Amino acid sequence: MENQFERLLLNPDVIIATPGRFMHCLMQTGVMLSKVELVVYDECDRLFEMGFAEQLKAITACMPASRQSLLFSATISEDVRNFTLAGIKDYRLVQVDKDSKLSEQLKIHFFVCRTVEKEAVLMYILRERVQAGEQTIVFGATKYHVEYLYELCSKAGLKSTFIYGAMDQRCREEKLVEFRKKHVNFLFVTDLAARGIDIPFLENVVHFDFPTKMKLFIHRAGRTARAGRTGVSYGILT
Question: Cβ of 10: how many Cβ atoms within 10 Å?
């Protein structure tokens, strides 16, 4: 942290930060944000869901009213909307499409099974439904789930890798490169880790642990069938 304090005090042109750590740095260093000209809130809906609303408001309050604000969000909840429009007189809302819309190029399949059959259904999907050479992301509930599914795949002779939020950044990048270069075709991830991962030509998404919210399903399934390409979403339900 001392290294981060020192770099902040060198008056950088650009600061990229997470809200909690940045708030702590501001309190420790006394750095002023009165000369900020542009602020970008990326993945704002997710930041609010994770409980960073108070930090974002406190940080924003330190900036001049003359700044330009850019907010990027996959979905816009009432909390995000209120935060965005607070004190802003002249704004533009650019919306690509409705939150609940899925691509017409996306095929959706659901497999209903007993809880003890979930792994067998997953193996059936990866072996029989996914075509050879296609890239597939499988969503698990926690880091323990994705590690378990990775071991299961390895024992079944399927090359795969996994990523979760608490993983070391360098390790995450190495595993992502391995998947992007098609050294492996199956990537097990948690929802937290999936944020910020960009796979341009992904053919399949598998929901091993089905999402509890419709918005989350849209986020996951929307990772395939992009830019006019077709894609498939497989949901395993108990």
Answer: 6
Task: Confirm if 33 and 63 have CB atoms less than 8 A apart.
Answer: yes
Mean pLDDT of 131-160: 95
The average pLDDT across 147-167 equals 93
* Sheet bearing 136-139, strands edge to edge: 106-112, 231-237, 204-207, 136-139, 186-189, 160-163
Write the Ramachandran bin of 69: left for phi over 0, alpha for psi from -120 to 50, otherwise beta.
beta
Name the pTM for this structure. Answer: 0.68
Residue 167 token pair: 């993983």
Q: Specify the CATH number for 2-85; select among 3.40.50.300, 3.10.180.10, 3.30.450.50, 3.20.110.10.
A: 3.40.50.300
Q: At CA 46, angle to CA 36 and CA 202, rounded to 5?
A: 110
* Residues 106-237, CATH architecture: 3-Layer(aba) Sandwich (3.40)
DSSP 8-state symbol, 125:
I
Proportion of the chain in helix, strand, coil states, percent, rounded to 5 = 40, 15, 45
The residues near 133 (Cβ < 8 Å, ≥ 6 apart) are: 182, 185
**Quick count: other Cβ atoms within 10 Å of Cβ 169?**
7
Q: Domain-by-domain residue ranges, the chain? A: 2-85, 106-237
Asked if residue 145 has pLDDT above 80, the reply is: yes
